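Please fill in the sequence for the structure shown.

STRUCTURE ENCODING:
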């Protein structure tokens, strides 16, 4: 057993990094998760439970939000100590543009994560949706983000939504031939017909550009249609169907026309999903929704 994984009281240096990893030892076998956090981090019951419910604790590679879950000897527990400090997103602040028995489409603002990050789930749209469904009486609600959208980006985020009484149907939405229309501001001049066909590779952290002759590469093509130019940047429109949202930023970067702004929570990346159109996989009904354009995405705003 790796003894470096077994501090009885982690020192300040571990807390400064924001992440603590421990391995459950024999005397901790059968403890609840919140008891383990109390022993290892010196937390009282309430803050330990809050940290777990905020999505900051993993057993192995699986996030768990149940404070009373019992741990077993040898299990590795990863704790992101700052997860509970994130301000929760008010469910009543969500701009819901479509909702039915199977899915919800939210018009997400810049800077807000669509789904849980590695460090925690609090503050994300998905977390607020779970709270909303629970408040409405749905037992153990589950939501699934269909297409990734960077926290710094804005626009339409499609989620499946269900309770514990129904099996998952996320795959049915993920496999759809769905029209997704995006707007972005790219640095520099974008000529008519600019496109990129660099293949992509999926990794545990998302997608990246493929290297030449890489076996796992997946074909991808992005066409950038210029709409307007100002202040050294060009407003473009992009249509995707099955490709990942990440290919827009990756292909723009490959063409040396990066998306204006910064990615990440609390930031503004001038990229927005402005339209979703698809045939509902569960009902057969046509769904076609549009987001309110951010000022930078509207060529007539200025």
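FILLED IN BY: designer on duty
SEQUENCE:
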């Amino acid at each position: 057993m790796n003894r470096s994984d077994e501090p009885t009281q982690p020192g300040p240096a571990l807390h400064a990094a924001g992440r603590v990893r421990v391995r459950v030892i024999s005397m901790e076998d059968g403890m609840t998760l919140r008891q383990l956090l109390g022993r290892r981090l010196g937390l009282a019951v309430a803050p330990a439970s809050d940290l777990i419910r905020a999505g900051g604790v993993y057993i192995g590679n699986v996030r768990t939000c149940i404070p009373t879950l019992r741990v077993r000897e040898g299990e590795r527990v990863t704790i992101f100590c700052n997860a509970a400090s994130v301000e929760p997103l008010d469910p009543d602040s969500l701009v819901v543009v479509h909702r039915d028995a199977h899915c919800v489409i939210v018009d997400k603002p810049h800077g807000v994560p669509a789904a849980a990050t590695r460090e925690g789930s609090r503050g994300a749209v998905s977390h607020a949706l779970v709270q909303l469904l629970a408040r409405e009486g749905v037992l153990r609600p589950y939501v699934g983000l269909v297409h990734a959208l960077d926290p710094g980006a804005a626009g339409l985020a499609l989620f499946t939504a269900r309770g514990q009484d129904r099996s998952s149907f996320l795959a049915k939405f993920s496999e759809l031939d769905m029209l997704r229309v995006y707007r972005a501001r790219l640095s520099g001049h974008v000529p008519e017909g600019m496109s990129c066909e660099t293949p992509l590779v999926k990794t545990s952290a998302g997608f990246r550009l493929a290297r030449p002759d890489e076996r796992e590469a997946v074909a991808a093509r992005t066409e950038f249609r210029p709409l307007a130019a100002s202040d050294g940047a060009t407003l473009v429109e992009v249509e995707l169907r099955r490709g990942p949202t990440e290919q827009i930023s990756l292909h723009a970067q490959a063409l040396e026309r990066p998306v204006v702004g910064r990615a990440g929570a609390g930031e503004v990346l001038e990229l927005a999903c402005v339209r979703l159109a698809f045939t509902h996989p569960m009902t057969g009904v046509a769904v076609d929704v549009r987001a309110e354009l951010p000022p930078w995405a509207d060529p007539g705003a200025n």
